[in-house]
Fold these 2 entries.
Entry 1:
Amino acid sequence: MNSNVRPESLERITTKELADKFIDEQVAQIREQVKDKKVLLALSGGVDSSVVAALLIKAIGKQLVCVHVNHGLMRKGESEQVIEVFGKALDANLVYVDATDRFLDLLAGVSEPEKKRKIIGNEFIKVFDEESAKLSGISFLAQGTIYPDILESDGVKAHHNVGGLPEDMEMELVEPVKFLYKDEVRVVGDALGLPHNMVYRQPFPGPGLGVRCLGAITRDRLNALREADAILREEFENNGLAGKVWQYFIAVPDMKSVGVRDGKRYEAWPAIIRAVNTTDAMSATVEEIPYALLHRITDRITHEVEGINRVLYDLTPKPIGTIEWE
Ligand code: XMP
């Protein structure tokens, strides 16, 4: 039997009962596979790795070592939530690495998008390698592979797979959700008691805010982007759009325009809002955000975020515009 084909006996997981059944089966299987050995997991805080972490914590507790690498390109509050949920609430064995300076120093002055992606991907592997070398007695590597990753393992995913791990790591894999579709992973995450905003979060690219801080990344512009993005997310949540719109974010280009603040000339960057709907990310339509909300978001971002003096709304569908700007 090809172990990369979803077993026919696996019923589509749509309810808490089915999720609980899946969890019980996986817990037993993981214990059987791992025995008293240790397992390593790169925990990004995204849906898939979070669900795998919660499953493994349930199955083997402290035999799981989670490594969270903060590359400095996370959204506001994300790394903090990983520490809160896994380090504190679930009392996991969590290694938190703040590698912000390493990533941002390497990225300084680099404006070419694919070069930026490569630097971020390679450095991620390096940091993860260094951290795992410090640990002893690790026999397994857990991964949040899901079924679409197996089905779509073509060039597209390879290019997107920042956070992919070194292939020469000689460890047996533990991939408990590899036959699940995204919606099923979410039902399982809910059943495991993970926070709603972690389980239902929108897709977030591996290189994170790095591909939204357009051109050569600087700390001040990255910071402005992170704050503006947090305001956009807060307003979408407060106005019922968070669960409805597939992906929404801010991009900040490397250009300034003239504005006025406190009666003085104020040169600053524009924040570009992107909010799209899609089913497969191959094509996408633009969400019709109510004008009143757009005005409110503009007002908040231009008043609350240092370095932003205009807010623009990207009305371009995909094709012709890709979802991300880089
Ligand atoms: P585009 O911009 O190609 O994006 O229309 C389609 C989807 O893929 C995400 N994306 C990425 N995901 N690493 C990732 O993990 C990347 O480098 C990357 N680039 C784009 C994008 O956010 C959208 O959901």
Note: Residues 117, 160, 162, 203, 205-207, 211, 247, 281, 318, 322-324 surround xanthosine-5'-monophosphate (CB under 6 Å).
Entry 2:
Amino acid sequence: MMTAITRENVLEALAGISPPGASQSIVSQGLVSEVVINGNDVMFALSADPRNVPAMETTRQAAEAAVKALPGIGKVMVALTADRPMTRSATPAQAARQARGTAVEGVSHIIAVASGKGGVGKSTTAVNIALGLAALGHRIGILDADIYGPSMPKLMGIVDKPKLASPGSKLLAPLERYGIKAMSMGFLVEEATPMIWRGPMVMGALVQMLREVAWGRLDCLVVDMPPGTGDVQLTLAQQTPLSGAIIVSTPQDLALIDARKGLNMFKKVNVPVLGIIENMSYFLCTNCGERHEIFGHGGARIEAERMGVPFLGEVPLDARLRERSDKGEPVTVCEPSSPLAAIYQSIARQIWTALATAEAAVKPPPRIVIDR
Ligand code: ADP
């Protein structure tokens, strides 16, 4: 018979893990906290020096592996928390962020998911990143700013219309699904309604969706940008108080040229690019199990290196991902143990680490709440 996992079992398993270069274990240094045991699933937080968060990722993985080795264990989730602010001076990117539009009250970070052209899987990626961040225990919202082709209703399987936050209120309540809040022009207009938007209207619609929606307290709002790098996108990037941007590209040369334009656009307006994701990177054949690199994969990684921005990961071309997305069942929540979900979770972790590291330089990051 299997015995239940205890806190002591977890701490014992972690007693052999120490951060790089340290002689004491993470347990004796008091870095392990908020151990939550739910049946056989275990979650806990690992504190990291904000200057050292990327290096602690290896330790986080080792800690996760050590607990995963316990007999009878279920899911294991280890969150890095950078809870020791070091300096109080703003970095150039933070100063630029503060200079751009005023912050949205209650929202700690706004990040943009962008692509140089349409159809590369930007919206699919944005949804799965948002859900990956939520799975880490953060309060997340998603704003579909792709008003030319809003896809959030379909991707999130939302058919309801938003209502006022309270009677007489000027604010709309966001819709909630899979534990995240969502707002999209697609919730407000019929799918078949043709819309012709001029630049200023796009900006007006986005500002309204940012500020006239009762988002409440969010650790991060993910903005699914309109595809492309024209004036509209540039204005959005410039006037939204973004903490950072993520670029989605396919491996084809053409898409990469567009991705480069996206990188340059964010550089121009001083928004830090948190990284590039290569979507439809390779095809994992369900029949033969072999990996086929249809579009000559790896271009985005090389491009990221050349541009000096992080490469966040490769998402394969996968028919299941498309089927699930089209049914409003994002893989990250509907198949959380699948290899695809693992890719999005890893990307989400890297994004959060980058946000927490940047933020720790000016103020303590929001506490990571593990609550499930
Ligand atoms: P964009 O926002 O860039 O226009 P979407 O996210 O709407 O792109 O994706 C376009 C189409 O490609 C959708 O049908 C989506 O389900 C599909 N798709 C996206 N990423 C993948 C993938 N990795 N594998 C298979 N299909 C994908």
Note: Residues 115, 118-124, 151, 227, 279-280, 315, 317-318, 321-322, 325-326 surround adenosine-5'-diphosphate (CB under 6 Å).
